[in-house]
Amino acid sequence: MDGTFDVAVVGLGAMGSAVADQLARRGCKVLGLDRFVPPHSLGSSHGETRITRRAVGEGEAYVPLVTASHRIWREIEAETGRPLFTECGTLVVGPASIESGFVQRTLAVAEQFGIPHERLDGAGIASRFPFMTGLDGALACFEPGGGYVRPEHCIDAQLTRARASGATLCTGEAVVGIRQEAAGVLVETDKQTWRADRIVMTAGAWNARILGASFDRLLMVDRQVLHWFALEERAPFTEASPVYIRMHGPEAIQHFYGFPPLPGERRVKVATEQFATSTDPDAVRRDVDPAESDALFKDHLRGRLAGVRKDAVETAVCLYTVTPDGGFIVDRQPDMDRVTVVSACSGHGFKHSAGLGEALARRLCGETQDIDLTPFALARFRA
Q: What confidence tens digit (pLDDT) does each residue in 358-373 have?
């Protein structure tokens, strides 16, 4: 048994690195554990870039989290000199005919919270952003304050700050079980057993396995594929082009998202999402069949994205962990009140991670909380 910690953070990806950083900066004695060596490419927090936007069409409860994240990333940039957040704008495009569609919800959130934005029709989109084509009947929300963050850089910067604030971070050490006792909690790994007053579970795709049967029906792991396509010589993309989310039909699968080329590169990252087939995080297929990239180009990009060559030059696999309603879980484990579960944040979680880390640190340290986390409680599933 090695020491006693105030809080053990299990999993040091997007959420775990933020929680560990914010707790350590408040003087908590923090233990961080990860089965890999983050940042790494085996979970959900890799792939060079992640979209960030304050006008969150997934729901108004997320807006305070992403707003706080933007502030925190700028603070870390000022402290470390490392570029984390590129404010190139976010363009959300979809059919104007779908009255309650994602674009319409995005516009509503932007208006509700006074987030600077522009409403564009198909002609306006084509004029401003010529890389986007096939825009008959389209509607868009352009948020100039959105853009992308660099997930590997963010995780590394927050873990570096956590260590500097006194956190003990143990990587390459897999948690195999947790147990609550009267005086605290025990964290059993494949190497040793640790003791802490409390635990924050941020193990992503491995959360359900550690937490046990009660979370099996709540946390599903899906394999997702990221693709990088080369640009044609005169492709209408620049480093200043916005990130984008494009819906081209009423079904959830009828969308894709992508990024501008990174500085000095002549390729762009594009992807879609699937939620039909679940996987085991330890047995997921890591290679990508060229047919998967061909299908993305044929079904989504062709006729809608200008200047992109049809053959992918690089691919990667990542894991999404999702709940039945697609929302976050931020709540105590029902049978262990010293264990806080933070999970199912995949797909739209990274942009909220720094703000959520701060909100959880404030809660655990007894500080005044200005972000309402009750929309992410487990009670909604019991109801």
A: 999 999 999 998 999 9
Residue 289: Cβ within 10 Å count: 11
Closest CA to 327 of 274, 280, 380, 382: 380
| Local confidence band at 383 (pLDDT 50, 70, 90 cut-offs) | low
Task: Tell me the pLDDT tens digit for each residue of 327-345.
Answer: 999 999 999 999 999 997 8
Cβ neighbours of residue 376 closer than 8 Å, sequence gap 6 or more: 61, 327, 328, 329, 330, 331
Report d(CA 43, CA 189) in Å as an integer. 19
Identify any residues that bridge with 175 across adjacent strands, giving them in sequence order: 189
Per-residue model confidence as pLDDT tens digits over 4-42:
999 999 999 999 999 999 999 999 999 999 999 999 999
Residue type, position 314, single letter: E
* Residues paired with 147 in a beta bridge: 52
| DSSP three-state, residue 2 | coil
Radius of gyration of the chain (CA): 21
Half-sphere exposure of 62 (CA within 13 A, CB side): 23
Cβ(188)–Cβ(181) under 8 Å? no
Mean pLDDT of the region 253-276: 97
- Say how far apart CA 250 and CA 37 lie, in whole Å: 40
Contacts of 331 (CB under 8 A, 6+ apart): 340, 341, 376, 377, 378, 379
Amino acid at 166: G
Q: Please report the pLDDT score of residue 289 as a whole number.
A: 98
* Dihedrals phi, psi of 152, to nearest 5 degrees: -65, -40
The answer to whether residues 176 and 191 touch, using CB atoms and an 8 Å cutoff, is: no
Residue 2 has pLDDT above 60, yes or no: no
- Tokens 């879980």 identify what position? 329
Can the peptide bond before residue 83 be classed as cis, meaning omega within 30 degrees of 0?
no
**Average pLDDT of span 141-155:** 98
Measured between alpha carbons, how far is 37 from 289 in angstroms, rounded to an integer?
Answer: 27
Q: What is the mean pLDDT of the chain?
A: 96
The Cα 346–Cα 319 span in angstroms is: 8
Backbone angles phi, psi at 157, to 5 degrees: -65, -40
**What one-letter code names the amino acid at 338?**
R
